[in-house]
Amino acid sequence: MTDAPAHRITGKTRIYGILADPIHHVKTPEVMAEVFARHGVDAVLIPFHVKPEGLATLVSGLKAMENFGGFIATVPHKPAMLGLCDGVTEEARNIGAVNCVRREADGRMVGTMLDGIGFVVALRTVTGFEPAGKRAYVAGAGGAACAIAFALADSGVSHLTIANRTIDKAEALVGRLRQAHPGLSLSTDAASVADHDLVVNGTSLGMKEADAPPLDFSRLSAGQVVADAIMDPVMTPLLKAAEAIGCRIQRGLPMLQCQIELMAKHMGAIA
Ligand SMILES: NC(=O)c1ccc[n+]([C@@H]2O[C@H](COP(=O)([O-])OP(=O)(O)OC[C@H]3O[C@@H](n4cnc5c(N)ncnc54)[C@H](OP(=O)(O)O)[C@@H]3O)[C@@H](O)[C@H]2O)c1
């Protein structure tokens, strides 16, 4: 990321947003500013701090904002956005969450989910890891973890473990994955970390210093690729432990960078 000069906002500038709670950790405004600059688009993406109880009111208000092009939804709003959109892509419906919304000219909100595509593209380009035929462990069953799990399944992994604090959510995700990929080997065994080629943290554990570990670090080994969806801190406790063991690691930011142009396209900001 470079320190691009700030965009000059005028009456013609189109507005986009990112909705989150908390908001301070988001990286999308600066990453998207680079995309807008590269494409010569007169637009700005601004952070909107909204709590879950205010989400429906905000989205309803944004429908009336004529110079508003769309928004990115992140923690904790992705699952709730599914029900607040006027239309969603099949991918978003499968995953059960929305992370990018286009506001149509008539105010309709159309949602999609791009986290998983971003994760797999980053995995291939940053670590050189090809998921096809490999065994993958995903910690979490929220928006990011579901998207990563579906994208890994779509990429042809041979086995997928979904480990989550709320076991019902892990089992529900496994059920949806089984429907979409009937031949795929699936489990919810959280203790099986060692038995995988790829280990992913798709939970929010690791954002705060006091957080418990998202998985048992002592079961990692040097031959594994270890990825974290968390962007702040850049090096989570999981990534630090994995690097110390000798694993190839993937940080969270490339997952966003690899989907950012797709987000700009979905929101209609670039062709
Ligand atoms: N790099 C990127 O492009 C990118 C994209 C999307 C998200 N992310 C990051 O991914 C992380 C997760 O986001 P999300 O949208 O999936 O959030 P989410 O939908 O709210 O899901 C949170 C997940 O974390 C688990 N979790 C939260 N607190 C926990 C705790 N105290 N103990 C155990 N498990 C806990 C939840 O488990 P339960 O189901 O049991 O509550 C759930 O699986 C965030 O750090 C977000 O910033 C990064």
Task: Provide keyphrases for this structure.
single chain; 271 residues; alpha/beta; Rossmann fold; six-stranded mixed sheet; 10 helices; 12 strands; 34% helix; globular; binds NADP nicotinamide-adenine-dinucleotide phosphate
List the helices and strands and how they pair.
Blueprint: E1 14-20, H1 28-38, E2 43-49, H2 55-62, E3 68-73, H3 78-84, E4 87-88, H4 90-95, E5 100-103, E6 109-112, H5 115-127, E7 135-139, H6 143-154, E8 159-163, H7 167-180, E9 185-187, E10 198-201, E11 225-228, H8 237-245, E12 248-250, H9 253-257, H10 260-266
Parallel strand pairs: 1-2, 1-3, 4-6, 7-8, 7-10, 8-9, 10-11, 11-12
Antiparallel strand pairs: 3-5, 5-6
Helix pairs in contact: 5-6
Protein name: shikimate dehydrogenase (NADP(+))
Catalytic activity: shikimate + NADP(+) = 3-dehydroshikimate + NADPH + H(+)
EC number: 1.1.1.25
Explained architecture:
Pathway: Metabolic intermediate biosynthesis; chorismate biosynthesis; chorismate from D-erythrose 4-phosphate and phosphoenolpyruvate: step 4/7. It catalyses: shikimate + NADP(+) = 3-dehydroshikimate + NADPH + H(+). This protein is α/β, with parallel strands linked by helices and 271 residues long. The protein folds into two domains: 14-113 and 257-266, Leucine Dehydrogenase, chain A, domain 1 (Rossmann fold, 3-Layer(aba) Sandwich); 116-255, NAD(P)-binding Rossmann-like Domain (Rossmann fold). Helices cover 34% and strands 20% of the residues. It has helices at 28-38, 55-62, 78-84, 90-95, 115-127, 143-154, 167-180, 237-245, 253-257, 260-266; strands at 14-20, 43-49, 68-73, 87-88, 100-103, 109-112, 135-139, 159-163, 185-187, 198-201, 225-228, 248-250. The strands form two sheets. The protein has a six-stranded mixed beta sheet, sandwiched between helices. Strands 9-8-7-10-11-12 form a six-stranded parallel beta sheet, with helices on both faces. Helix 5 crosses helix 6. The model has no long low-confidence stretch (mean pLDDT 95). Residues 74-76, 78-79, 115, 118, 140-145, 164-166, 169, 202-205, 207, 229-231, 252, 255-256 line the site of NADP nicotinamide-adenine-dinucleotide phosphate.
